[in-house]
Amino acid sequence: MKDKIIKLIKDWMNEVSQDIQLDTVYLFGSAIYLDGRMFKPEKSDLDLIILIPDNIQSALERKSWIEKIKEHKATLE
């Protein structure tokens, strides 16, 4: 199951990267804990940390980037 989840996240990252800069995404929680044995597809969520790229500096750039990542998050859900 863990491998399927990691592939899903990688595919999503590749898709998002075609629209906006996406440098670092961390997957944590039940999806990978104990090799994913605690993950229940019908109940569990995917826990992600997505870092804003360093070159996005101004508040307006960050706001725009966050709005776009929010749109992409909806496709992951």
Task: Compute the CA-based radius of gyration.
Answer: 14 Å
- How large is the count of helical segments? 2
Q: Strand pairing plus helix content: what structural class?
A: alpha+beta
Distance from N terminus to C terminus (CA atoms, Å) equals 17 Å
Shape: elongated
Tell how many strands the DSSP assignment holds: 2
Q: How much strand? A: 5-15%
Specify the biggest β-sheet. 2 strands, antiparallel
Percent range of helical residues: 40-55%
Which residues sit in consecutive blocks of at least 5 with pLDDT less than 50?
Answer: none
* SSE order: HEEH
Strand order of the largest sheet: 1-2
If you average the pLDDT, what whole number results? 92
Describe this entry's structure for a reader:
With 77 residues, the chain is of the alpha+beta class. Helices cover 44% and strands 13% of the residues. The protein has two helices and two strands. A two-stranded antiparallel ribbon has the order 1-2. The longest helix has 18 residues. The model has no long low-confidence stretch (mean pLDDT 92).
Q: In a nutshell, what does this entry contain?
A:
This protein is of the alpha+beta class and 77 residues long. Helices cover 44% and strands 13% of the residues.
List keywords for this structure.
alpha+beta, 2 strands, elongated, 77 residues
Question: What's the SSE blueprint?
Answer:
Blueprint: H1 2-17, E1 24-28, E2 47-51, H2 59-76
Antiparallel strand pairs: 1-2
